[in-house]
């Protein structure tokens, strides 16, 4: 009792702190209300509900990530531990963690899942779950369900399947969706918290347990929307990753829960 | 048992050529048909099910030599199994699909189809699949020659900038398709991710003079056939199986002009042909040649004297033939609109000595003068003769446009030095009998019109007397502005 009372007070103070911190960050985040969406590997009408959360309006930029590296020197280009990032980590940076000025507002890439997760943690945030990320990505330009905006869908497929633009353009250079969130399609791939769950757990599928859903016929048999080729590409990409991987076109953005502030007040 | 059957087949073939002993032939034929119910014929193994006896001792190690289409690596001369290391790199890149039409291809080795791999039955392969770091997508490879989960797809699933390795023993001989099998599979294949791997039988293949690698594929673009610029993949057309392009070796004209396949008369040619799909089966045909041998579906069973052979999507064939005479032999998908309207056309250019006994070429050029019967049949389909000048002008215009305008053009001005003019022509102006003569009897040899020499052939036109009157009334009135009186009797008199 005593313990839980003290922790409640502690939590109260932390949440006050978070509240102040978050208020400034909310300017760069968008609110996603509680709602449901249809995950790709769920079968028909197997909708999934996600609680309300805030999501970064843009992917994290090189400039922002450098700030993090300066404050957390163990995540520098040369200082990172091999366990947490493969060779090629921050490959597009110089060895002293500087980079060409034109890259400052382009999204940071060549970062591992560990690095992305740590970055978000240091901001008082976390990586989005695949469900959260996909729910925001499922929005159209004018509505929460983008599947009916056919032109937008064809655009997504086009920008998703074309080769990576080099250098990667700045954030805010693609499209702003219904929630006010930018660059969900066509700029880079983004890490999610549970990026490989569509292979390793049965959570998001009817009869999972092996990787076969993503190969050959299995890719079509299990999905809720066989025409959503761009979603197939995203799921396929995530499933090919390991947490230490660094890719030239894989970055991230963060989310934060709404509960932290509202729950205690 | 099947060895016996195969040798009998050969025997039968010889018998058929040398003798007409029908009874013997049919006895053998029925025997063969009965026996062939037992299973496919195998040259390499005695028709047995299972190939584990191909897992034998491995001697030495070598790197596979990979080639870009239309070339294939040299034949295998080893008579033992070895360890073969295959290094295949995946590259996503923009290339031409047709002149002025670009497309983002996903490739095995930077080409469509991907690099040709040649190994021997029983070889132990160490396969390295490398996904280039500049690529955007994960990929993998499913080799139809592999016995095992996904044909290697699961073992080779690899993110950009990473490499996957797996091993397999090639226990079945044949010509096999390989392709990417990453979701969405159809899209990966539609973007060009396929190629061929040849597993030569233990005894090797017979020696030929030329070997080539050809692979068909269908492509789906936002724009219609020929629409220029960078064309994105169109998912809806792919699902409906309505390709804009059906091509050999990744682009329209990959095997034409300077890039034609080459051979010399008298040489033997072997084509390794695959079909990547993703959707269409191919009716593979070589215009002006008969395939002497066809390895049915790329397997061990051989057919002979074949005109068109079917290649399923995700399947292959090997065809062998001798080019006996020179010429341009055209490879097509004989589902023929694909050849002439969607690009499925290539050329095998054969030089060397002619053999008039096999093919004479055009012997004597001539003009076809239709028989009286044919002309009468033709006339029956026409309407009644025109009477008034107005009727003649209307009928004459229609007759002119149908019969004359193709050469003399709609304005009657012709084409200088090729087709003489009718308008303001000193050859027919004021000389209607010359015009009538040309129409009803035809005209050949040199003439001079308005000072220009013409030397070609005009066939006689299948027009009735009154139709000739109408068309000339139209010609003189419209082009020269003069009213020339011509009668049916006049026309009749000039007919030869």
Write the layout of secondary structure elements.
The complex is a heterodimer of chains A (265) and B (496).
Chain A: H1 2-26, E1 29-32, E2 35-37, E3 48-50, E4 53-56, H2 62-71, H3 113-122, H4 130-137, H5 150-161, E5 189-190, H6 197-200, H7 218-221, H8 229-239, E6 250-251, E7 255-257, H9 259-262
Parallel strand pairs in A: 5-6
Antiparallel strand pairs in A: 1-4, 2-3, 4-7
Chain B: H1 2-18, H2 22-35, E1 61-63, E2 83-98, E3 101-108, E4 117-120, E5 124-131, E6 142-143, E7 163-169, E8 174-179, H3 185-190, E9 194-200, E10 210-219, E11 229-230, H4 235-240, E12 245-248, E13 261-264, E14 268-277, E15 282-287, E16 291-295, E17 302-306, E18 308-311, E19 315-322, E20 327-333, H5 337-341, E21 345-351, H6 372-380, H7 389-403, H8 405-408, H9 432-441, E22 443-449, E23 452-458, H10 465-480, H11 488-494
Parallel strand pairs in B: 1-2, 2-5, 3-11, 4-9, 10-14, 13-21
Antiparallel strand pairs in B: 2-3, 5-7, 6-8, 8-9, 10-12, 14-19, 15-18, 15-20, 16-17, 16-19, 20-21, 22-23
Spans of chain B of at least 5 consecutive residues whose pLDDT stays below 50 are 1-20, 27-44
CATH topology of chain A: paralog of FGE (formylglycine-generating enzyme)
Strand order of the largest sheet of chain A: 1-4-7
Number of domains of chain B: 3
* Structural class by helix and strand composition of chain A: mainly alpha
CATH architecture of chain A, by name, is Alpha-Beta Complex
Percent strand of chain B equals 25-35%
Spans of at least 5 consecutive residues with low confidence of chain A: 199-222
Total domains of chain A: 1
What is the arithmetic mean of pLDDT of chain A?
81
| Fourth-tier CATH superfamily name of chain A | paralog of FGE (formylglycine-generating enzyme)
| Coarse morphology of chain B | elongated
The termini of chain A sit apart by 20 Å
């Amino acid at each position: 009792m005593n313990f839980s009372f003290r922790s409640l007070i502690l939590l109260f103070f932390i949440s006050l702190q978070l509240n102040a911190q978050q208020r400034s960050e909310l300017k760069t985040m968008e609110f996603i209300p509680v709602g449901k969406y249809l995950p790709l590997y769920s079968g028909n009408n197997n909708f999934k509900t996600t609680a309300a959360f805030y999501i970064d309006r843009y992917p994290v930029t090189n400039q922002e990530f450098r700030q993090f590296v300066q404050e957390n020197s163990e995540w520098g280009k040369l200082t990172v531990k091999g366990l947490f990032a493969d060779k090629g980590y921050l490959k597009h940076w110089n060895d002293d963690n500087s980079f060409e000025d034109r890259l400052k507002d382009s999204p940071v890439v060549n970062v591992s899942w560990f690095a992305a997760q740590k970055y978000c943690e240091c901001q008082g945030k976390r990586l989005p779950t695949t469900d959260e990320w996909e729910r925001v990505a499922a929005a159209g330009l004018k509505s929460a369900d983008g599947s009916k905006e056919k032109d937008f869908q064809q655009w997504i497929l086009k920008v998703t399947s074309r080769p990576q633009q080099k250098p990667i353009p700045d954030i805010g250079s693609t499209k702003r969706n219904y929630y006010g969130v930018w660059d969900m399609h066509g700029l880079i791939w983004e890490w999610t918290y549970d990026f490989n769950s569509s292979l390793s757990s049965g959570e998001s599928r009817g009869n999972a347990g092996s990787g076969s859903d993503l190969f050959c016929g299995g890719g079509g048999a299990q999905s809720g929307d066989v025409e959503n080729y761009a979603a197939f590409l995203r799921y396929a990409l995530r499933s090919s990753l390991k947490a230490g991987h660094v890719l030239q076109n894989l970055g991230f953005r963060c989310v934060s829960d709404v509960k932290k502030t509202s729950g205690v007040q | 048992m099947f060895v016996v059957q195969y040798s009998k087949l050969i025997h039968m073939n010889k018998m058929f050529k040398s003798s007409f002993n029908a009874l013997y032939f049919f006895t053998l034929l029925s025997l063969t048909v009965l026996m062939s119910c037992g299973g496919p014929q195998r040259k390499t193994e005695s028709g047995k099910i299972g190939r584990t006896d191909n897992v034998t001792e491995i001697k030495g190690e070598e790197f596979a030599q990979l080639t870009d289409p239309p070339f294939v690596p040299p034949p295998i001369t080893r008579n033992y199994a070895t360890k073969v290391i295959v290094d295949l790199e995946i590259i996503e890149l923009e290339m031409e699909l047709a002149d002025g039409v670009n497309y983002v291809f996903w490739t095995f080795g930077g080409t469509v189809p991907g690099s040709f791999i040649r190994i021997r039955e029983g070889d132990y392969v160490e396969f390295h699949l490398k996904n280039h770091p500049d690529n955007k997508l994960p990929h993998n490879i499913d080799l139809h020659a592999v016995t095992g989960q996904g044909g290697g797809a699961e073992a080779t699933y690899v993110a950009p900038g990473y490499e996957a390795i797996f091993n397999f023993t090639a226990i079945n001989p044949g010509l096999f398709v390989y392709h990417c099998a990453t979701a969405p599979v159809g899209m990966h294949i539609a973007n060009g991710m396929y190629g061929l791997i040849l597993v030569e039988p233990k005894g090797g293949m017979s020696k030929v003079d030329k070997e080539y690698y050809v692979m068909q594929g269908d492509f789906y673009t936002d724009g219609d056939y020929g629409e220029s610029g960078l064309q994105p993949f169109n998912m809806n057309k792919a699902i409906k199986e309505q390709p804009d392009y059906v091509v050999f070796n990744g682009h329209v004209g990959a095997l034409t002009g300077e890039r034609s396949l080459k051979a010399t008369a008298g040489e033997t040619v072997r084509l390794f042909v695959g079909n990547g799909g993703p959707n269409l089966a191919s009716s593979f045909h070589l215009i002006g040649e008969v395939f002497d041998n066809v390895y049915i579906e790329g397997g061990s069973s051989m057919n002979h004297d074949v005109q068109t052979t079917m290649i399923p999507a995700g399947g292959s064939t090997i065809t062998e033939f001798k080019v006996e005479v020179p010429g341009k032999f055209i490879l097509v998908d004989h589902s023929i609109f694909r050849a002439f309207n969607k690009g499925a056309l290539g050329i095998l250019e054969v030089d060397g000595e002619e053999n008039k006994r096999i093919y004479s070429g055009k012997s004597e050029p001539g003009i076809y003068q239709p028989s009286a019967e044919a002309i009468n049949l033709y006339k029956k389909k026409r309407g009644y003769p025109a009477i008034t000048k107005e009727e003649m002008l209307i009928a004459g215009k229609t007759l002119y446009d149908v019969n004359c305008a193709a050469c003399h053009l709609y304005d009657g001005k012709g084409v200088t030095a090729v087709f003489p003019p009718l308008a303001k022509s000193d050859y027919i102006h004021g000389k209607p009998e010359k015009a009538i003569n040309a129409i009803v009897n035809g005209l050949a040899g040199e003439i001079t019109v308005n000072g220009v020499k013409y030397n070609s052939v005009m066939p006689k036109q299948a027009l009735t007397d009154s139709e000739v009157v109408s068309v000339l009334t139209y010609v003189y009135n419209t082009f020269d502005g003069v009213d020339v009186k011509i009668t049916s009797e006049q026309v009749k008199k000039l007919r030869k």
